[in-house]
Write a structure and sequence with these properties.
This protein has three domains: 55-186 and 339-367, no CATH class; 189-320, no CATH class; 375-549, no CATH class. 51% of the residues lie in helices and 14% in strands. Helix 6 runs antiparallel to helix 7, helix 9 (237-254) runs parallel beside helix 11 (299-320) and helix 10 (258-289) runs antiparallel to helix 11 (299-320). It is flat, with a radius of gyration of 32 Å. The protein has helices at 27-77, 79-91, 101-111, 113-116, 130-144, 147-166, 168-180, 192-209, 237-254, 258-289, 299-320, 342-367, 375-382, 494-507, 525-537, 541-546, and strands at 3-4, 7-8, 12-13, 19-20, 214-217, 220-223, 226-229, 387-388, 405-411, 419-425, 448-459, 462-472, 477-486, 489-491, 512-520. The strands form four sheets. Strands 8, 9, 10, 11, 12, 13, 14 and 15 form an eight-stranded antiparallel sheet that branches. A three-stranded antiparallel sheet has the order 5-6-7, covered by helices on one side. A two-stranded antiparallel ribbon has the order 1-2. A hairpin with a 2-residue loop joins strand 13 and strand 14.
Length: 560
């Protein structure tokens, strides 16, 4: 537009229907030029949508049906992994936000609907090469009984199928919603212990700085007018997981510069840790200065969450001050390829279905070929060491419902009596894992743990690591030694169990067992400890457990 004698010359009208402005040197004309170019971009986009939309409707419908079919197949084939994740969402408040992930992803995709309408979906069969690697990852998670590995593999499988059946052009548009699906996996419980230690140290330092007398033992604090503990629920994992999830989403919506994204994600990790420490300090101070009238009961949960929400709002508010121009660059679709024929689409779906089915089929074959362990051979081997199959002599009884076979022995002559429990697994599989949370070395409704320690007892060519616990039922106290036996090795670490059992599969030694010994404490605990050590050193437990894989010997009357 030019001004001549106070008259504005008419603008040149382009084929898009919007005026084309000539650049001027004045600020006003520059602003008008920017607005006009924006209108031109919008007009070209809407024209592309109008031209491409009707022609792309059928490909979207066909590819959408194919994708839905494959997702249903994945849900059926890997229902164990998905149902385990769903159970965690329901049971654990830490992961209740996972129910919002799919709606958020759907909303993010819906926001891109105009751009997606410009794209004609097309199969990308080269991405099927990722499927075997993801199945191997899932299988390793199955062997090691690590739910997170299995679930991440299944979610990644869904992501690969989205790209395979919709194409790379669709990936360019909705890459973030696809990646955001990874937050469906409930993970992070392994952080509880270190977060407890961090919160404990934070509180300890804070109380020292405030000159408040206290005594710290483990994760507990003894003050002059009360005792406080940093329990697992107070470690701050729920706050951390929720903040990281929200921080990732917020960064995508608000920032475009990578250094801002990195700083905000860093803050999403650090702020919850420090904030939870401040929350713990604040609750202890409230209870301390009010003589436990406030903050010591259930109200500390209300105070704590109010503090966490305030911190989260402040973090988001500070982040919004540094927001970038979030207008995405104009998406220029590549020339639409020739639509996939029904035969091409069906071929890719069939290949994907066959590949996906091989993993669960192999797992079913592997898990169904196990033989029932022969614990009678184990009892016979232990008999010369003074063990008799008489059952437990007290009310101590471990709970291992997934064991393929269980054995309970007692010493014949020792006084006080020593009990031995063996929970044997022919091979780890879904519902039959030694390290499952349901498994207990004693009945928690009867016994409470007084102390928890670790020890080593020599036996033959190796030392056996035991978890040592003193338990109390009110009228009886017992010493319990427990350990895991995997691949001819003893360990007390659940993570070591998972790694060893994965290695054992390739060495053909999948059998494993949970072993626990218990004896009453009728004097110094050192006496009970020495009693267990003598009994363990009298017989080779590893050789005894190996006997369970031996076939049962038929008796003379034909019975086994």
């Amino acid at each position: 537009m030019t001004i001549s004698n106070g008259q504005a010359s008419p603008p040149h009208i382009t084929s898009t229907g919007y005026p084309e402005y000539e650049p001027e040197h004045s600020a006003g004309s520059l602003w008008l030029g920017d607005c006009a170019r924006s209108h031109q971009i919008q007009a070209r986009t809407m024209t592309a949508i109008a031209e491409a939309g009707p022609g792309n409707a059928k490909p979207w419908r066909d590819h959408g049906i194919a994708l839905a079919t494959i997702i249903v197949l994945i849900a059926l084939a890997f229902h164990d992994a998905l149902s385990a994740a769903l159970q965690v969402w329901i049971v654990s408040p830490t992961y209740s936000h996972c129910f919002l992930i799919v709606p958020i992803v759907a909303w993010l995709v819906w926001e891109k609907r105009d751009t997606l309408a410009m794209i004609k979906p097309a199969v990308a069969p080269r991405f099927l090469w990722f499927v075997p690697f993801l199945l191997v990852l899932w299988w390793l998670g199955e062997l090691s009984s690590i739910n997170e590995v299995r679930q991440y593999a299944v979610v990644a499988l869904i992501q690969v199928m989205i790209v395979t059946l919709l194409g790379v052009e669709v990936l360019r548009v909705i890459w973030f919603p696809i990646l955001f699906l990874l937050f469906l996996v409930p993970t992070g419980e392994y952080l509880i212990a270190p977060m407890q230690r961090f919160a404990t140290r934070f509180v300890d330092i804070s109380l020292n700085l405030l000159h408040i007398p206290h005594y710290t033992e483990g994760t507990s604090f003894e003050l002059t007018n009360g005792r406080f503990e940093i329990a697992e629920a107070c470690a701050g994992l729920r706050f951390l997981v929720a903040t990281v999830t929200l921080g990732v989403l917020f960064s995508y919506l608000v920032f475009r510069k990578i250094h801002k994204v990195a700083l905000f994600l860093f803050a999403s990790v650090v702020v919850p840790l420090i904030g939870n420490g401040l929350r713990c300090v604040g609750i202890i101070l409230i209870a301390h200065f009010t003589n436990n009238e406030y903050g010591a009961g259930a109200d500390h949960i209300v105070y704590g969450w109010g503090f966490n929400v305030a911190i989260l709002l402040i973090l988001i508010l500070l982040g919004s001050f540094f927001r970038d121009d979030v207008h995405d660059a104009t998406f220029v679709p590549r020339p639409n390829p020739k639509p996939d024929t029904f035969k091409q689409l069906a071929m890719v779906v069939a290949i994907a279905a066959v590949l996906i089915s091989t993993g669960p089929a192999f797992a079913w074959w592997h898990n169904s070929r196990g033989a029932q362990p022969n614990l009678a051979a184990v009892a016979a081997y232990l008999q010369p060491g003074g063990w008799r199959e008489k059952g437990n002599t007290g009310n101590w009884s471990p709970y291992f419902p997934g064991a393929d076979a269980q054995l309970m022995l007692s010493t014949a002559s020792a006084t006080p009596v020593i009990d031995l429990f063996v929970g044997y697994y022919s091979r780890p599989r879904t519902g039959h894992t030694m390290t499952a949370h349901l498994n207990q070395a004693w009945d928690n409704t009867v016994w409470s743990r007084v102390t928890n320690d670790a020890g080593t007892t020599p036996q033959g060519q190796q030392n056996i690591r035991f978890r040592e616990s003193v338990i109390n039922s009110g009228y009886e106290k017992r010493l319990v030694w427990s350990t895991y036996w995997v691949n001819d090795r003893f360990t007390i670490s659940p993570m070591a169990v998972k790694l060893l059992q994965t290695r054992a599969v390739f060495e053909g030694r999948e059998s494993q067992a949970f072993v626990a010994l218990s004896t009453p404490i009728d004097g110094p605990v050192e006496d009970a400890r020495a009693r267990l050590a003598r009994q363990v050193s009298a017989v080779d437990l590893s050789l005894a457990l190996d006997r369970a894989d031996m076939p049962a010997t038929p008796s003379h009357d034909g019975a086994t």
